[in-house]
Structures are given as C-alpha cells and as structure tokens.
Structure of ADP-ribosylation factor-related protein 1 isoform X2:
Amino acid sequence: MYTLLSGLYKYMFQKDEYCILILGLDNAGKTTFLEQSKTRFNKNYKGMSLSKITTTVGLNIGTVDVGKARLMFWDLGGQEELQSLWDKYYAECHGVIYVIDSTDEDRLAESKQAFDLPVNP
Ligand SMILES: Nc1nc2c(ncn2[C@@H]2O[C@H](COP(=O)(O)OP(=O)(O)O)[C@@H](O)[C@H]2O)c(=O)[nH]1
Ligand SMILES: [Mg+2]
C-alpha cells in the first residue's frame, strides 16, 4: 500500500529533472541569461539587478520550473582555463545552451574555437 501511495504521490507531484549547461566565453552574458530566465519563470523570484552581476567564479546553479519539468541550469565559468572543465559536465547534462555576444565581433573567432573544443582532448 505504501509503495502504491508513494508512487502515486511521486507521479502527481514530483517533477522530472533535467540538467542544462550554459556555456560560452567569459562576459558573453551567461549569468544574465540565467537571471532573466529565473525572473521570468519563477513566480516569486525577485531577480537581482542586472547591473550587479559580476564575473562568475566557479559554478553558478539556478533552478527553473517549467510545467512538470524542473530545469537545473549550470552556469560554468567561461575563462580559458575553465573551458577544459566543460567536457567533465557533458556526460551529466541533458542539454547545452551556448551563449555568444553577437556584438563582440573581435571575439567571435575565439568563441567558435571554444565551441569546437574536442569533447575528449
Ligand atoms: N546590452 C546588453 N548587455 C548584456 C546583455 N547580456 C549581458 N550583458 C552585459 O554583459 C556583461 C557580462 O554579462 P555576464 O552575464 O556576467 O556574462 P558571463 O560572464 O557570460 O556570465 C554584463 O555587464 C552584462 O550586464 C545583453 O543582452 N545586452
Ligand atoms: Mg557569469
């Protein structure tokens, strides 16, 4: 009976969890994108002022509930020395968002190079 009830509870209330990586060069707008998503989809979330977002050190995790799905966004640092860590996360994630600053033409080539990084160098 317990199994049946807990199964029913899970079916009704538990959300499917998905992990999404947010990648891109430093300063591309990854943390801004995450904050905007949280503000838009989480009803009671009072977004931090966009001007207060500073460089991400390490990992910044944000959760957004959309319908029956819970999306866990992993906003990874984009600095060159951190890019080698990206592939460690691929196996764990369900999707990747790659952020490009389209107005920063000087770094477009660098962004492509980072995007093309071999998965297992
Ligand atoms: N004008 C404009 N500025 C942005 C946009 N997205 C991010 N920024 C600015 O770009 C800078 C870097 O953004 P941030 O989210 O910290 O980049 P991250 O290093 O990729 O996490 C910040 O000063 C942001 O305010 C955008 O869509 N438009
Ligand atoms: Mg950031």
User: Anything to note?
Assistant: Residues 15-115 form a domain with the Rossmann fold fold (CATH 3.40.50.300). The chain has one domain: 15-115. Strands lie at 16-23, 59-66, 69-76, 95-98. The CA atoms of residues 107 and 116 lie 14 Å apart.
